[in-house]
């Protein structure tokens, strides 16, 4: 009986170590900028902070001490990096926001949003750069410093946000876990993990520009501006129409390019149109003597 008790104790005691041994850290696919390292350092220092009767220093910093403060916490961390290291991340690399969808929409306009599944609301389907098929759930493994947007009710609106610290893979099941630091959990700053294909994850605001997206009339943002610059360089769009807004002029330019490229003429910058445009732009630019850099040799 004593022998069985010892075995049971060892099993319970060693179980967590067994789980850790079966989990390996996934190395980031992209370089981790120094500012991300600083951001994760600041966020880590806050783990364990607990709100005081529904009030937090993060909410007070953002203008409402009693706010639901997951976004406020992350924006506060970014501001701390700016103050300590003299960076200018807030409103440039990361958004400042306090309400549902605002942060997600900021990343979409910045051209750095990856939807977990389906299409981006108001835009279209995405594909990872270098790929020729649409993004599927699990294709993108978030990177340190990415922001994860959640909906726990199953709706399309963001209800929570967290900061990616790192990801791990279970060596037995091959399942990927996203490790995050988050505020308002439910009343503290804490670490947690989510499955890569968790139904509660809507998408990621990314550090790097990792995906392209279907665009059409009415879209606005950095991806539209990049499309317009390529069309202008190739002679399909007047330079003064490079505005970041997908208007009638851009629709006509895309349609004219599609005619030229032998594609369906619908004025929508879909995956086929963009892949062909990108290839032609890269080829033309690479062989353009007007953009060569000439340096004097000693």
Explain how this protein is built:
- The protein is of the alpha+beta class.
- The protein has 2 domains: 23-124 and 139-208, endopeptidase fold (from Nostoc punctiforme), CATH 3.90.1720; 214-287, PGBD-like superfamily/PGBD (Muramoyl-pentapeptide Carboxypeptidase, domain 1), CATH 1.10.101.
- It is built from 8 helices and 9 strands.
- It has helices spanning 2-21, 34-46, 57-62, 70-85, 102-110, 222-233, 248-261, 271-286; strands at 23-25, 113-115, 126-128, 147-150, 160-170, 176-182, 190-195, 201-205, 211-213.
- Strands 1, 2, 4, 5, 6, 7 and 8 form a 7-stranded antiparallel β-sheet that branches. Strands 3-9 form a two-stranded antiparallel ribbon.
- The radius of gyration is 23 Å and the shape is globular.
């Amino acid at each position: 009986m004593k022998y069985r008790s010892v075995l049971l104790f060892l099993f319970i005691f060693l179980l967590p170590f067994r789980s850790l041994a079966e989990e390996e850290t996934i190395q980031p696919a992209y370089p981790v900028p120094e500012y991300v390292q600083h951001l994760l350092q600041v966020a880590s220092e806050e783990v364990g902070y607990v709100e005081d009767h529904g009030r937090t220093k993060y909410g007070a910093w953002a203008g409402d001490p009693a706010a639901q403060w997951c976004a406020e916490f992350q924006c506060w961390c970014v501001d701390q990096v700016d103050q300590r290291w003299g960076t200018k991340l807030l409103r440039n690399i990361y958004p400042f926001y306090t309400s549902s969808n605002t942060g997600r929409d900021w990343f979409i306009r910045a051209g750095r949003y990856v939807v977990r599944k389906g299409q981006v609301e108001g835009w279209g389907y995405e594909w990872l750069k270098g790929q020729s098929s649409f993004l599927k759930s699990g294709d993108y493994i978030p990177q340190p410093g990415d922001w994860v947007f959640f909906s726990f009710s199953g709706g399309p609106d963001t209800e929570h946000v967290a900061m990616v610290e790192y990801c791990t893979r279970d060596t037995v099941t091959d399942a990927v876990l996203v490790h995050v630091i988050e505020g308002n959990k439910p009343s503290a700053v804490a670490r947690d993990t989510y499955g890569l294909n968790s139904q509660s994850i809507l998408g990621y605001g990314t550090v790097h520009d990792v995906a392209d997206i279907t665009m059409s009339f009415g879209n606005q943002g950095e991806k539209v501006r990049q499309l317009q610059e390529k069309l202008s360089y190739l002679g399909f769009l007047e330079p003064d129409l490079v505005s970041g807004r997908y208007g009638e002029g851009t629709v006509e330019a895309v349609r004219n390019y599609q005619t030229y490229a032998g594609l369906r003429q619908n004025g929508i910058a879909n995956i086929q149109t963009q892949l062909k445009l990108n290839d032609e732009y890269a080829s033309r630019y690479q062989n353009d003597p007007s953009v060569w850099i000439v340096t004097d040799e000693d």
